[in-house]
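User: I'm new to structure prediction. If I give you an amino acid sequence, what do you actually give back? Let's try with this one:
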Amino acid sequence: MAKRDYYEVLGVSKSASAEEIKKAYRKLAIQFHPDKNPDNPEAEEKFKEAAEAYEVLSNADKKARYDQFGHQGLGGGGGFGGAGMNMEDIFSQFGDIFGGGGGFGSFFGGGGGGRRTKKGTNLRVKLKLNLQEIANGVEKKIKVKRHVVAAGVTFKSCSACQGSGQVKKVVNTMLGQMVSASTCAVCGGSGQIVDKKPAEADSRGLIVREEVISINIPGGVGEGMQLSMSGKGNETPGGIAGDLLIVIEEAEDNVLQREGNNVIYDLHVSFIEAALGASIEVPTIDGKVKIKIDPGTQSGKMLRLKGKGIKDINGYTRGDQLIMVNVWTPTELSREERTVLESLRNSENFKPDPGKQDKSFFDKMKEFF
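Assistant: Good question. You get back a string of structure tokens that encode the predicted 3D arrangement of the chain. For your 369 residues, that looks like this:
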């Protein structure tokens, strides 16, 4: 089933402020919270859907990409962006949406005990793609070095916070005694510390492992676009793994030039071909094709190959390939060639007549762009 628009999910407009987005999410989170709707799968799905929408719209970078490219700008349904969020992700990332240290659990009287799930750090990689890969989308396999919890590591409850993940302190104020809670510095809020670990693991029970990760890149991505692969970053003991952030780089093509979703090709033809017409083979993203040059073609004429451009990241359409015809003038002539051209110099048919052109070069450019 197609994803709903995130603004529609939260019931806000695209011009909504960060505070309005937060309030809208808070309202839905209260309405569909599992503690208020036990054994209600539909409410749980709405709870997750609202959290996914908030995860994107509350992040300036993700929001900008979503506004421009829609769900495909976040990687579509291939595990990118907020897709695939589970309840642990939601409570970890947005547990303080109501204010205070207790998170969702304490707000609804649930059994969270104040502990907040930690999230590992994100990894960032650059991925260079050629024009063909950008145009059609591609599956890439990359090697990534991640911190993961070593096999055989065991944990025990943190004695500093008694496994709660928080340290509480009584503060005397003019209004009386108040209890403040802060993240435990010993366990980092996980409520656990390493008990036993193999020799190769560090003090947190982590080792570095090289993994081959398969990434599905949607067609139409662009330079600097960042995709996010949930759970493929560094792990953390007692928590959830961070994300793998993939930054797209475009490799410059030697023949075709990208212009939005269109590609441009400069075609050079001889004076003879332009005057008499010709059938010429030209390169495209998908291979070579033959095009027809009509007799009397002028330099600067623009030809269009429909659907031979780049796939739109936010839909199923494709751009076009635009071919700019350049008539090549020879710089050196043999004696015989010069004699032939001299005999034609005064021919009325060879004298320039701009009035016969119905549109100027700039008018043609406006039509195409």
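You can read the tokens as a compact description of the fold. Here is one thing that stands out. The first strand starts at residue 123 and ends at 129.
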